[in-house]
Amino acid sequence: MDRSAPERNDPSALRWLIEHELRAAREQAGHTQSAAARVLDCAHAKINYLEQGKNQQRPDEVVRLLRSYGADPVDVDRLSSLASAADRGTWWAPFADVVPDWLRTFVGLEGLASASFAYEPLLLHGLLQTRAYATALLADALRVRVVDVERVVALRLARQQRLHDPVRPLHYEAVIEETILDPSSAAPR
Q: What is the 3-state secondary structure (H, E, C) of 81-139?
């Protein structure tokens, strides 16, 4: 395996995936959070936090819960593996101060994805933007402070590296409007 490519596993995205699958497995089994708490010999609140991704889901706890729910052993192994990977640092940690909360899970899930599709009617998607385009776009943006523009641009360029990852490249398809490529084509004739 080529270790030069950054690891794209993201703790917040992994916790999000695990929380959803834990809750779904519990509900499918017909168990309450109180019953799940008895399995781990913990407070009801802990189960609630595990299912909201507020607490780190430990692999051994994930295994015990899923087995008590009668989950498929393949799912138990998969989620246990995800839980063990969820305690690693995120690839975008150097940009954490400029990544808004609403974007963190998305960027994390993008790092886990094998494919992505985007439809952008007005702008080039961040994965297609050049440094100059992104800088010009963000220069007067209300959501990005002027002092943070270069770091946000650097984050976009770092996200693009996934497209060229030698081990797990992101299969990316985008549909863009012609006016994005040639603004003069939008002019009335």
A: HHHHHCCCCCCCHHHHHHCCHHHHHHHHHHHHCCEEEEEECCCCCHHHCCHHHHHHHHC
Q: Using N-to-C axis directions, what is the helix angle for 11-29 and 59-68, rounded to 10°?
A: 20
Nearest in space to 163 (alpha carbons), one of 109, 122, 113, 124: 113
Buried b (16+ CB within 10 A) or exposed e, 71-80: beeeebebbb
- Domain limits, CATH 1.10.260.40, in the chain: 11-85
Token output for 143: 């959501």
The span from the CA of 59 to the CA of 19, in Å, is 13
**120 - beta bridge partners?**
176
Going by C-alpha positions, the residue among 66, 99, 95, 92 that lies closest to residue 81 is 66
Integer angstrom CA distances of residue 157 from 14, 42, 68: 23, 44, 44
141-167 pLDDT tens trace: 777 888 889 999 999 999 999 899 898
For residue range 6-40, list pLDDT tens digits in order: 455 667 778 888 899 999 999 999 999 999 999 99
Pick the CATH number of 11-85 from 3.20.20.105, 3.20.20.450, 1.10.260.40, 3.40.50.2300: 1.10.260.40
Q: Which residues pair with 49 in a beta bridge?
A: none
